[in-house]
Amino acid sequence: MKPHLLIVEDEPALIELLRYNFDKEGFRVTTAGDGEAALVAVAEGRPDLMILDWMLPHISGLEVCRQLRRKADTRDLPIIMLTARGEESDRVRGLEVGADDYVAKPFSPSELIARVRAVLRRAKPSSAHDMLTYGDLSMDLASHRVIRGGRSVHLGPTEFRLLRFLLERPGRVYSREQLLDAVWGRDIYVEPRTVDVHIRRLRKAINGEGEIDLIRTVRSAGYALDETADA
Ligand code: CA
């Protein structure tokens, strides 16, 4: 089945360019011209991935992303944000509201296609029936459920992959570059700082109040899953 891509963009010329290119690559493309239409489109038929422009009339892309992340059924919808802004702080803001990736305009269609494929690969549910556990944290790979201390933990697709990778070898320290290769893939360029943003999101999700921080930050080295981590 063709992957369903929802493109949310208010520039008709860019929509047509993207539609043409993704169509050629075997995607089923639907479009929305503003944030409100995007939310309606998602409610009517969930896409496999959303390409979301930051600057939209009425509701901004950032706000659309925030709203989708608040709802249980769209919390893990893969989203790539597009923006004319190239500032690092904007990139971080985009990732903090829950975008899985961020592409600055102008970009080439082939660059965006590579990013879309990478995010879709990461989001693909595992067919394994394994259970990974560490301390009071467990991950069911078949149902994609994460439980900590009896409570259900909701993770975005990138945080899920990141946690899964750390759970596969608890205690081992990984550098940002190793995490990028393992979780994001070698074929796309992602800044090492992106890892920090997703680690922060993962911590926020798995560490409840009064619980031990399961992720250890190893200064100038990277991160590890470690129950004995200092708070
Ligand atoms: Ca725009």
In terms of topology, how is this protein built?
Layout: E1 4-8, H1 12-24, E2 28-32, H2 35-44, E3 49-53, H3 61-70, E4 79-83, H4 88-96, E5 101-104, H5 109-123, E6 131-134, E7 137-140, E8 145-148, E9 151-153, H6 157-168, H7 176-184, H8 193-206, E10 215-218, E11 222-225
Parallel strand pairs: 1-2, 1-3, 3-4, 4-5
Antiparallel strand pairs: 6-7, 7-8, 8-9, 10-11
Helix pairs in contact: 2-3, 6-7, 6-8
Tell me about this structure:
The protein is of the alpha/beta class and 231 residues long. It is 40% helix and 20% strand. It has eight helices and eleven strands. The strands form three sheets. The chain has a five-stranded parallel sheet with strand order 2-1-3-4-5, with helices on both faces. Strands 6-7-8-9 form a four-stranded antiparallel sheet, with helices on one face. A two-stranded antiparallel sheet has the order 10-11. A hairpin with a 4-residue loop joins strand 7 and strand 8. Helix 2 (35-44) packs parallel to helix 3 (61-70), helix 6 crosses helix 7 and helix 6 (157-168) crosses helix 8. It is globular. The termini are far apart. The model has no long low-confidence stretch (mean pLDDT 88). Residues 10-11, 53, 55-56 line the site of calcium ion.
Summed up:
With 231 residues, this protein is an alpha/beta fold.
Q: How many β strands by DSSP?
A: 11
Bound molecules: calcium ion
Work out the helicity level. 25-40%
End-to-end separation: 46 Å
Report on the biggest sheet. Answer: 5 strands, parallel
- Secondary-structure-based class equals alpha/beta
Multimeric organization: single chain
* Discrete helix count: 8
Mean pLDDT comes to 88
Shape: globular
- Evaluate the radius of gyration: 18 Å
* Unreliable residue runs: none
